[in-house]
Amino acid sequence: MKRRKASPARKAAFFIILAIIVCLVTVTITGLTLGSGVAVKSAKNIRTGIDIRGGVNATFVPADSTITPTEQQLESARAIFETRLDSENILDYTITTDTDNKAVIVEFPWKEDEKDYDPQAAIDELGATANLTFCSLVEDDEGNPLDADGKKITESGNDPAPKEVLLQGNDIQSSSTDYQDGKYVVTLSFTDEGKEKFKQATTTYLNDYIGIYLDDQAISWPTVNSTIEDGQAIIEGSFTAETAKSLSSKINAGALPYAMTSSNYNAVSATMGTKALKVMLIAGLITLILVCLFMLIVYRMPGFVACLNLLAQVSIQLLLFANLGLTITLPGIAGIILAIGMCVDSNVIIAERIREELRKGKSLIGAIDTGYGRALTAIADCNITTAIVALLLIFFGTGAVLSFGYTLLIGIVLSFLISVLVSKWMIRSISSYGIFKNPKLYGYKEEVGKND
C-alpha cells in the first residue's frame, strides 16, 4: 500500500512554530514597541518582590487625630488596602493592623522601573487614601453646578462646590471598570445601607448632578439619568482605559471607613538580597542546560523538540508576568523552575512511549501518534493534581505564597498545552522529512540478542 505524502502545511508546521519560539525568546529579552504607545514589556520589566529588591513600609493612621477607630474599622481599612494591592497585581505584600496604636501597617515592593527609591512616591501608587463622599452640588437658578466662587464650572474650570453629603466611602462595596457600548465606564456596587441611601439620592436628584469627592477635591460629577434601586451604578464620561481605572482605584481606596494618612514610612531592604536572585537564576540556567543536554543525548529528536518547548514555556511565563504587572518573588521563581520540571517530565513520558511503540515494530508516524495517546493520561493526571494545589495556594495564600501559586499554575497550564499539542505538531512535522525518518533519531535502539 502506497503511503500518503505529508501535506505542505504539516511539513511547514515545525518551522512556523520554531520561528514563533525565536520571536518569543527575542521579545522576552528585548521587549517590543507596536506603535501608538503600545508596547510589549520584556522580562526586565517584571516587578520583583520585597525578598529580592526591597520595598516600602508605611504606617497609616486616621487623618483626624480625634477619631479613634474601632477594631472592626481597622480591619475594614486593612481589607481595602488588600483589595487595592490585589487590583494592581502586587502579590508580595503584608498588611497588619496595630490595634494599640490604631494604625494599619502596609509593606509592599518597589515598582519594576523604580530608580529614585522614594518611599512617598511609592505610597502614592496605592492611590488616594482620602475620605470618599457623594454630595449634592451648589447650583445656579438654571441648574448649573457652581464652584466655590459662585461661577459656573464651564466658565472657570474649577471643581464644583459641594452642598450636602449624601453617601460616604463606607457605603461603597466595590468599584471596577467595564467596556460598554463602545466606551469605558466605571461601575459601582453599594452595601445594603448604601443601596438605600443611593436610591434616595438618585430619586431626589434625578436629571441633576451628584459630585464624587476625595476629601475636598471633586473627581467626578456625573448626571443622574435614572433612579437606581439595585445598588449598582455606572459612571459614564469621556474615559480612556487609564482614566477609568484611575477613577475606579480612587473610589476603591476612598471606600475607607475614615480618612487616613501615612504617619511615617521608610524603605525596606531586600530580605534575601539580589545575590540570592543571581544564585537562583544561575542555578536555574545550569539546570536548564544540563536537562537539555540529557534530553538531546538520550531522546535525540524528541529531546530537541522538548528543549524548544522549554524555551517557549519560560518565555511566555516571563512575558505574562511582565505585561500583566504580576509580582515575582524567589518562591515565584521556584514555581517557574518546578513548572519546567513538569514540562521535562511530560516530554520524557512521551519520548519513552514513542520508543516503546517503535520497539513493537510500528511505523514512525504510528509510534508518534500512539505514543502521545498513551502518554496523555499520565501527563493529565500529574498536571491536574499539581494545578489543584496551585489553585489552593492562590485562593488561600498571600504574598510570596501567592506568587508561587501563580507561577506554578501558569507554568502547569503552559506545560500541558505545549507538551501535548505543540510538541506533537513539531515532531509529526519534522518526521515527514526523509532525512529525519530514521527511528534512531527518536531514541530507538535494537535490543541486543533479540533474534538469538
Describe this structure in words.
The mean pLDDT is 81. The chain has 452 residues and is α+β, with helices and mostly antiparallel strands. The strands form 5 sheets. Strands 5-6-4-14 form a 4-stranded antiparallel sheet. Strands 8-7-11-12 form a 4-stranded antiparallel sheet. A 3-stranded antiparallel sheet has the order 9-10-13. The two termini are 31 Å apart. Helices cover 50% and strands 18% of the residues. The chain folds into 3 domains: 8-44 and 273-442, Up-down Bundle (Multidrug efflux transporter AcrB transmembrane fold), CATH 1.20.1640; 55-129 and 256-268, Alpha-Beta Plaits (2-Layer Sandwich); 130-255, Gyrase A, domain 2. The chain contains 12 helices and 15 strands.
Short description:
Helices cover 50% and strands 18% of the residues. It is α+β, with helices and mostly antiparallel strands. The protein folds into three domains: 8-44 and 273-442, Multidrug efflux transporter AcrB transmembrane fold (Up-down Bundle); 55-129 and 256-268, Alpha-Beta Plaits, CATH 3.30.70; 130-255, Gyrase A, domain 2, CATH 3.30.1360.
Order of helices and strands: HEEEHEHEEHEHEEEHEEEHEHHEHHH
Query: Looking at this structure, what is the CATH superfamily of the largest domain?
Result: Multidrug efflux transporter AcrB transmembrane domain
Report the CATH C-level class of the largest domain.
Answer: Mainly Alpha
Question: In one word, what is the shape?
Answer: elongated
Write the layout of secondary structure elements.
Blueprint: H1 8-30, E1 32-35, E2 38-40, E3 47-48, H2 50-53, E4 55-62, H3 71-87, E5 94-98, E6 103-109, H4 119-124, E7 132-137, H5 153-156, E8 162-168, E9 172-180, E10 183-190, H6 192-204, E11 211-214, E12 217-220, E13 232-235, H7 241-254, E14 260-268, H8 273-299, H9 301-324, E15 327-328, H10 330-359, H11 364-396, H12 399-430
Parallel strand pairs: 3-15
Antiparallel strand pairs: 1-2, 4-6, 4-14, 5-6, 7-8, 7-11, 9-10, 10-13, 11-12
Helix pairs in contact: 1-9, 1-12, 8-9, 8-10, 9-10, 9-12, 10-11, 10-12, 11-12
